[in-house]
């Protein structure tokens, strides 16, 4: 009987996770929320779940995003994704000397109409990236973000520029970081990233 009760609890938690994941997906698509943590917390409140220990992971949210977009916004989402990948490719071509990689929702395919483009550059000279942007006359906002390499937290510079209403966030990392998996949190999964040639291939498959 104890085993049956435990199984029921596990099913209940799994159902709650799935419900929160789909609510979070709707919030991200319809309200333009890009922050996974914020979307999950809002979804949990809407679902009446006070215990935040069993919220869905970002990969579960991504799956729910794809499902929601295919169900309610299939054509518009595909067009928007192609537009974002084209913008990402242009930016990567401009920044090719800094070994650019695409990551985030534009790579995974879950990007919606409010999505930003996330790039990672791998160079020994972060200042050279800033000087490049200045030399090209590109307006940008400087900032910082953090990643986890194993259990070590690293803080890196970020430059955010805008391409016709779409923010492009450029994180500048060391070349050694390209050889190790990076995460946005200790509990998260490794960030997927794609080089220029891979992004060109993704776009060719969409035509």
Q: Which terms would index this structure?
A:
7 helices, 207 residues, six-stranded mixed beta sheet, 50% helix, 2 domains, 6 strands, alpha+beta
Assign the CATH class of the largest domain.
Answer: Alpha Beta
CATH architecture of the largest domain: 2-Layer Sandwich
Largest sheet: 6 strands, mixed
| Widest beta sheet: strand line-up | 3-4-5-2-1-6
Cα-atom Rg, whole angstroms? Answer: 19 Å
Please report the total strand number as a whole number: 6
The coarse silhouette is: globular
Helical/strand content category: alpha+beta
Number of domains: 2
Q: Write down the CATH topology of the largest domain.
A: Beta Polymerase, domain 2
Helix amount: 40-55%
* Total count of helical runs of at least 4 residues: 7
Task: List segments where confidence is low: pLDDT < 50 over at least 5 consecutive residues.
Answer: none
**Pattern of helices and strands:** HHHHEHEHEEEEH
Strand content: 15-25%
Q: Quaternary arrangement of the chains shown?
A: single chain
What gap, in angstroms, lies between the N and C termini?
A: 56 Å
Mean pLDDT: 90
